[in-house]
């Protein structure tokens, strides 16, 4: 087994043994149970009030997007605080010294840690996202058109933040690395909101700055992909009418999937940041 | 040659951790690397293992440049900060390091049990490392360092967390490893430890080797220890004509390199200068005295 896989397996085992996975699973079950109960209540009330099925579907889709936003925040925080100590804490405790005195490349440690955490984060995103979709579908009858795409974009957003936190972890203490990632996530999301509002008011420089930040940290762009996967096609068609520009300022609406170039850039971005983490760690005195 | 360094230096920011490390360690010996805290001992170890890069100078370990990855397969290392994954069982830590070494290292249950038995952890093999005392973690680190019968074993303060029984065990383990053909680089500030197991010693301070050689050579010069009080400082300086003078604890003076015939003259000189002689102990210097003498001389320079 290659050293990368040895470290990746060790990382997954750590997440399981340190009860991180179990805590996440417990919180997910609790969140899904509470939100599903809430959706079921809303749907029951709406049906009693003679609301049409189409209106119920629209309402449930919006609630689902808000729930997805909560999960995206949880995923982002999880990714940031799993990635941030991945290297920094091992260096502070001395665990890394014993490992790196073995015939292992420093790059193996970085990539192995990254790979192991990607597995944890992606599995968590898939399990929590799909469970929520299935549970809400069961009580409301509404299933989003492309749940796998939504989960995929949510996971990709988490991987972006995870990779950034690992880069920062090669030079900064864990708490600082985690905090920077969370702030970056928040700023990225706000930049997306500003871009939408800027477009509505035709504020060129604001749109340019906000768009640039979206490419600098692709987390918000990927979040828009998750939204698109959860929206009923009818909502998209309706909002692309005369009020389309205004609707695009809504941070919980996405008229299209992110462009292919942006998706490709996100993959390249992850590769670049991971390469920077490897380079940064390779040059560091331990 | 197992280790060879030439003018190795390491600078962290504005601080010199190592200034000019020139030394060699031969195959099959237990080499003691001695020095006070902050002398640069751990920095030297990190340079030898490739955990840090030298600012200047060069060196080789097992015939390969410092930090060579393949060479690390033949090196066992117990870090000064011996911490292992607290959520793994002791057995799993040893197995993990076996995997990382690769190259057909025996990771069978029997091989792992043998290692853990050697370091006194046979009955804790299936316990979580997180529940181990510091001493037990250090024992585990020692076991990890012995894994695969490495050609070179680097031990950085291997007894810092151990009780007297543990220290005796470590001495036994070191001797056994040498008999099995390993070379041991022992980094320590515990003089008695080094004196008991090392064949050769280098004494370092402020990033420089102050003296190195076989213990017999370092300590071989005849010396006399005199317990004296009320000796005026000028008289102490005057004693330098008999040999190197070093003041120790409890009013003991050591004169190293003194000719045995001159001992009565030295005692007479002390008495003549007004010093009160309480005891005279002729013999050779201990490592502690030699060490204090060298470190003291370096500090006054």
CATH topology of the largest domain in chain B: Rossmann fold
Average pLDDT of chain B works out at: 89
What's the gyration radius of chain A in Å? 20 Å
Number of helical segments of chain B? Answer: 10
The tally of structural domains of chain B comes to 2
Taking the alpha carbons of the first and last residues of chain A, their distance comes to 26 Å
Q: Based on DSSP secondary structure assignment, what is the total number of beta strands of chain A?
A: 0
Shape of chain A: globular
Proportion of residues in β-strands of chain B: 25-35%
**Average pLDDT score of chain A:** 88
Descriptive account of the structure:
The complex is a heterodimer of chains A (286) and B (301). Chain A has twelve helices and no strands. With 286 residues, chain A is mainly α. Chain A has one domain. The model of chain A has no long low-confidence stretch (mean pLDDT 88). Chain B has two domains: 213 residues, Rossmann fold, CATH 3.40.50.300; 64 residues, 2-Layer Sandwich (Alpha-Beta Plaits), CATH 3.30.70. Chain B has a six-stranded mixed sheet with strand order 6-7-8-3-9-10, sandwiched between helices. The longest helix of chain B has 16 residues. Chains A and B meet through helix 1 and helix 4 of A and helix 2 of B.
Summarize the model shown.
Chain A has 286 residues and is mostly helical. Chain A has twelve helices and no strands.
Fold topology:
The complex is a heterodimer of chains A (286) and B (301).
Chain A lengths: L2 H15 L2 H29 L4 H41 L1 H6 L5 H35 L6 H23 L4 H27 L3 H13 L2 H12 L2 H7 L4 H5 L11 H23 L4
Helix pairs in contact in A: 1-5, 2-3, 2-5, 3-5, 3-6, 3-7, 3-9, 5-6, 5-12, 6-7, 6-9, 6-12, 7-8
Chain B lengths: L2 E10 L2 E11 L4 E5 L6 H9 L6 E6 L2 E2 L9 E4 L11 H12 L7 H10 L15 H13 L5 E5 L7 H16 L3 E6 L2 H7 L2 E6 L2 E7 H5 L2 E8 L3 H6 L5 E4 L4 E5 L6 H10 L3 E9 L2 H14 L1
Parallel strand pairs in B: 3-8, 3-9, 6-7, 7-8
Antiparallel strand pairs in B: 1-2, 1-4, 4-5, 9-10, 11-13, 11-14, 12-13
Helix pairs in contact in B: 2-3
